[in-house]
Amino acid sequence: MTGRDGSAAARGSPGDRDKRPRRQHERRPVELPVIIEDAANRVRGKVRFDSHDLSVGGAFLRSDLLFEVGEQVRVDFSLPDGHRIHARGRVVRVSRERDGGQVPGMGIEFIALTDPEREAVRAFIARG
Q1: Is there a domain that residue 2 lies in?
Q2: Is residue 1 one of the residues assigned to a domain?
């Protein structure tokens, strides 16, 4: 296809084709038990999830039980080296599909993480 001036029509750059946002933080695949509580206390008790991956910015938790995008949660887990992480987070993505290679679960963005916790997660990710 050509444009009016005879040149090839604009097809967009390769980066334009993939409009998914780029990850801000390096992620590491890891399976850790994670305890979640909804910040609004609408769910009684704590819910245990398994992580799928982790970064300084958040985690993806595998589960068929999902919170809604935008909900704030309290996240509690231990890194393999023993560092305990207590963070506040927000659900930023929910995946309900099992096909297409997607894992059902939800993406949690950490919105409150202490500097020592952030550094412990960073060191864990760096050890790869």
Answers
A1: no
A2: no
Residues 6+ apart with CB under 8 A from 25: 55, 56, 57, 58, 125
Give the CATH number for residue 35.
2.40.10.220
| Burial class of 24 by CB neighbour count within 10 A (0 to 12, 13 to 18, 19+) | exposed
Nearest to 84 by CA among 128, 30, 124: 124
Q: Which domain holds residue 104?
A: 25-127
- Whether 81 is in a domain gets the answer yes
Counting the structural domains of the chain, the total is: 1
Whole-structure pTM value: 0.75
Specify the pairing of strand 72-78 against strand 33-38. antiparallel
Encode pLDDT of 14-61 as tens digits: 444 344 455 577 878 889 999 998 888 777 677 888 889 999 999 999
